[in-house]
Each structure stands twice: as structure tokens, then as C-alpha cells.
Amino acid sequence: MIQFYFLSIICNALAGYALITDAEAKSSILDGIRSYVLDETFRLVLGVLTMVVGFFKILSVIRGDIPVIGDLFPAAAGLAAGFSLLFEFYKSRSTIIDEKTEQIESFLSANRKWVGYGAIAAAGAHFLFPTVLFF
């Protein structure tokens, strides 16, 4: 469906930007967007939407595209970016300390920006090349 195609591009781009944005970096051009992206509630909603769209992107196929495989990269990028945003929210609210949670947190904090860049790349490639295999 075209709607999931559009939502995939928007959600991947926003989630990628949310993951690569730091609170310390200042830029007068993007201050308005940065204030929304750094808001905890916005990040939670964006994480949920990105994961849901990533999941449905695997299930829905655009006419002329290969089922499942044709949208695998943008769907996987959406799932990874959404999971990363949701895990950040969970970690900020959780009081339980677990070894598995610490392992996931160390992995995600080390690769947070790479997941963000991957989501932005998936959004850009998916926008420019809609029916290319894996994009």
C-alpha cells in the first residue's frame, strides 16, 4: 500500500534524525525540530509508530515489487530505529537492573548513531528508488 510506503519514509527519516541528534549540538536552523525530537513523549510515539510501520511494511507490497524481500531494508531499519527509541524510553523509566538490559543498552548506546544513519539512508534510498530490490 502506498500509505505504508510514505509512512515508512517519514518515520525512518524522523527516527533516524531523533537517534543522531544530541542535546548539546546547537544549530539555529533546526532548533525547532530538535526541541520536538528531544521530547520524551514524541520519541515514545515515534518509536511505536516506526516499529508498527516497519512491521506492516514487511507484510504490505507495492504493485510490481517483490513480496517481503523488496521492502526488507526499510522495514528492518524501521524496526531497529523504533526498537532503539523504545528501549531508550524504557531505560529512562525503568528501576530494574538486569544483566541482559545492560548488554542491550551498551550495544545500543555504542551503535545509536549508526542505526540513525542507517534509517536515514533507508528512507532516502526508499524515496529515490521505490522498486529496487532490497530498497
Helix content: over 70%
Total number of helices: 5
Q: How many strands, what sense, and barrel or not for the largest sheet?
A: none
Shape: globular
Task: Describe the protein in words.
There is one protein chain. This protein is 73% helix and 0% strand. The protein contains 5 helices and no strands. It has one domain. The protein is globular, with a radius of gyration of 15 Å.
Describe the secondary structure blueprint for this structure:
Elements: H1 2-20, H2 31-37, H3 40-59, H4 72-93, H5 99-128
Helix pairs in contact: 1-3, 1-4, 1-5, 3-4, 4-5
Which features would summarize this protein structure in a list?
single chain; 135 residues; mainly alpha; 73% helix; 0% strand; transmembrane helix; membrane
Write a brief structural summary.
The chain is mainly alpha-helical and 135 residues long. It has one domain.
